[in-house]
Batch of 4 targets.
Target 1
Amino acid sequence: MTAVVGILNKHAVAIAADSAVTIGGNGGKKIFNKANKVFTLSKQHPVGIMIYNSASFMSTPWETIIKVYRKHLDSTSFPTLKEYEQNFIDFLKERDYYTDTAMQIGFLENFTLDIINSIINDIASYNKGIIENPSANSRLQFLAILEEKIDNLISNWNGISEICPDFTDYTFEMFVAYSEQLFEKINQFRFTENGIIISVELLIKMKRLVYSILRAKEELTNFTGLIFTGFGEDEIYPQLIPINISIVVDNRLRFYINEDRTASISNINNAAICPFAQTDVIDTILTGIDPTLDTIYLSNFDALFKKYNQAIIDRIGDTNPLLTEQIQNLDISDIVNEFSYQNQQIKREYHIIPLMNAVSNLAKEDLSEMAESLIYLTYLKRRITFAEESVGGPVDVAIISKGDGFVWIKRKHYFRPELNQHFFDNYFKT
């Protein structure tokens, strides 16, 4: 896991990230504190990029891809940050050596197994006997529950209208033809070899579910967050564009712009704070209340109203059955929603707006200090509680401004700079 943040105002954008990366294996998880997550996207123009979640794309490290792209870009610039993002996506699609056919099938297999295994694990958590003590009867029960869950999931995912751009014209028939052998393989070793016979109809439903999730804009499956930020040639104020990107399937890149998290500084919008990945501490500072506590308070308010209604019903007793029934059927969801809305307005008026007004006037040095502090506070909370220390290590900080370009404020090196002057001498030569 990780924590990254971008803070924007009319002067510049400050970006910061921790150095922790979590590696999982058969023996468990291990956290290293040496990962690079902040990069210059161009050596000559004021644009940068941050990464979070998965550190690789189809097994190739993002650091390698970004630096190869940076060399490919050379001195080329674009009028807008959006065009930098589009050019980077086009670059990924053109470089098929990152995504050969065998690798695409392999990653689709992992994607499919993650979905199927999560359903099986869910069944096992509530019906342990079905998995632990297999019998003819328990296998039939398992298949019935499996099909019911898949039906429900298909119904939910089919209701999602937001589709990844490269998959808008990708039909179910195309997916079936592409993945036929893959599903035969999964059916064989995941079900048949365990004495479970999947019907043709259920197998089609599995394909339909995977197809629906594959096309959808979602954050439940594994992905990398790429955050483009800085200035295009024609942009006087900084922009921030995050995209979620995961795998390539049938030569289609699975990505989408995270529209809800974009930020654009203008004469109307003077400042923005954009946290990603582990955002709980930063959200607490931004809103004035821990998000978990906020949810608990709302839940308690709902429970309190229900208890109040029950107390009235108990007081009325059998004296007025009609009134008792009306109180029992009273829908308090509108009241709870109004309570939530009023709280949001209070947070916005008394905390968020004053904070953003202050951020809009920060100088570049203060922006960088704030960005670093937000990441450090996230680390500190993990450090002093019993939570997993999934945020940590040195904090890399940079400022991107229209006039000065990309400037490092703090940057770790895996080598001693004083012993490697040639690295800095050659930086702009490659």
Note: The chain has 13 helices and 15 strands.
Target 2
Amino acid sequence: MRGIVVGGSINLDLILPCERIPRPGETLHAHARELAPGGKGANQAVAASRLGAPVAMVGAVGEDTFAEPALALLADAGVDLTHVRRVPGATGIAVVYVDDTGENSILIEGGANRSVDADAVGAAAALIQDADVVVLQGEIPRDGIEAAARLATGRLVVNLAPVIAVSPDVLRRADPLVVNEHEGSLALRMLGEHAHGDHAVVAALVDSGVPSVGMTRGAKGALVGGPEHTAEVRSPQVDVVDTTGAGDAFVGALATRLLAGDDLAAAAAFAARVGAFACTGRGAQPSYPRSTDALP
């Protein structure tokens, strides 16, 4: 396959809209409850496929009733699911609290995603090696991420979210490494360096051997950095309903435009628009645009 291969997680999200996120020891009433497909890998695959890219997914779901709803929007978007395995046990799940300002707090239980290890990735070696762009995140085991990074012959996009310990070689092959403000500092520590401030962190990551960096900063947009300079990318201002999955929408859109030949700055500018749009709807995948016509 030529196109994008996403190696990552597939979850079913339980979304609980609430006035505010409960404090430790506190019980609050949610406004409602919703079930929606999620998982960072699946989110990014759906975002890219809806924007017209050919996408294949490498991942796993369980042999439970959550598997089909977790896969529903991947299938609807036309993502190739040939290398999504069914394994004994439970599909991954996330409990997502979303307050009235649209901010969220998320707790995940990996379930079948824990089986996406080096052996599982190796079974999809030919697919990964043939991809123009390979996209990875931090919701599958370390050895699965590292195996996929080694197999990638095309452009490697690593979204180190959540931050897990990986070989520095993975970070130094990422082009780009995509992180938010907090993740960027943690990634830099893995490379034995420290810096303060978003611009300084991006520059230090590049100085430490990362080919390029995209740092998402919410309503402030993004920073993109490479050997020559760091540039700011603005985000459109929108009425925020739910920020869940906005970063994944950014990554999926970024990969789509990199596949199309955009440079990183242009790809990030487009991705910022897609990420902003995702904030205007509830949930992750259900809020992603099906075309560019609706983008702010």
Note: The longest strand covers residues 55-62.
Target 3
Amino acid sequence: MINWKVILNIAKTHLLTKLKSTVTASLGVTFGIGAYITLVSFMTGLNEMLDDLVLNQTPHVHIYNEIEPSKNQPIKLFPEFTNAFNVVHSIKPKRSQKKIHNALPILNYLKKHENVRGAVPQLRAQIFYISGSIELGGNLVGVDIMEEVRLSNIKDNIIEGSPEDLNNNDNGILLGSGLAKKMSLSIVDRVQISTVKGGIFPLKIVGIYQSGIAEIDNIQSFANLKTVQRILGEVQNYITDINVKLYDIEKAVAMAAVLEKQFDVKATDIKEANAQFETGSNIRNLITYAVSITLLIVAGFGIYNILNMLIYEKMKDIAILKATGFSGTDVQLIFMSQAVIIGLVGGFLGLIIGYGLSVLIDNTPFETDALPTITTYPVNYNPLYYLMTRPEIRLHNFKHYV
């Protein structure tokens, strides 16, 4: 029967008599795990921030009417060319409106669907912003602003004004921050909107919108859906886009395929719309975990090297233990106990240091005009990262010595 009390006492004695080696091994584990916690918390926090920045502005399913060339060309009407190889040049897009056909029935269907958290209509218009002698091209998006607030992070991106201000003003506009800066406009000022047909409409600036993506902020603004329909001279059912949010984002691909066939529209799922960004995010995560795991392996080898040195130094002690009746298994357990003690002590201190550094980073000011809602560096305090930090302890094969 193994006497654990004696084995642990001998292991403790060995560690305390070689305190310098013990401290060195423990610090190797401590800094390895501390660096792992800090790195993985910061990098995954940064990745989540970037994901939220892009993905929260992207619907799970985007429905629209895509203008494309007709699949059936006139040459197919002639039977004599049926089995021939036909080449048709200068194919023109078929005549079609940008609006979604039967948009309101589609909206009603989606809002009643069990997998749909919400569906919001949009009307996108190509316009010109006019302020004095300045004239800039851009987009005006008609939205149901309160539904947008419920289903997206648009409220966080309104740096001046509020969604309620737009909802309560039929002649209001949330102007992109890049546009406001270029035209030297602010809240309460007015900006004139010119459509491609030449109509000019004055709108009151009730808020400034900043997404953090300059290409969007320099051209895009928001107004109420009815306001944009009135500016374009269109009826209430004139809708160019429907953005769908699901309860389960993993069902977006299947949902998009079903909607395309069911309503004869173009439906783009979030994975297709952000394929390049998702690839970059996966690569960043892969690099983060590769570096982090390397740190843990280095910590494990630190224990391994220290134990190797300790074994060589304790060859006489091993012989004495064997001579006094300890079995080979007992001697192995003594050195394994030392490794476990070093790992536990170093690991516990590493968790404390890692958490402390994470808190320090989380409270470090990070201010940039591109991201007005971010005030400190992002950190992810996922408990799983702390549970995964068990140092990899490699034990030497003691049988050669015992």
Note: The two ends are 18 Å apart (CA to CA).
Target 4
Amino acid sequence: MTNSPNPASTPQPYAAGAGSYGEPAPRMLSIASLVLGIASVFLGLTFLVPIAGIVTGVMARKREPEGRTMALWGIWLSIAMLVLGILLWVTVGGIILATFGLAATAGA
């Protein structure tokens, strides 16, 4: 009879970055991108939250292939809210400038 070790009882090495102290969890950037994308729906007029969501989403796509779906959702939500915020600011700014133009021509 041979004394071969039981494969279930031999310790397995830890995967790199999987819960090691001081290293981020495997999908941290993807989760951050998704959270920033959702937050940009409510805070889209600030322009900073959507830009941060886009940046973290692009970083997550390059570094974390297992979190690709969350990163893509964060990127698309952030882009959509950034575009809508810009359109809103341009529209409101155009209305304000048109109002001042009408007031200036009416008073002259």
Note: Helices lie at 28-43, 48-63, 68-107.
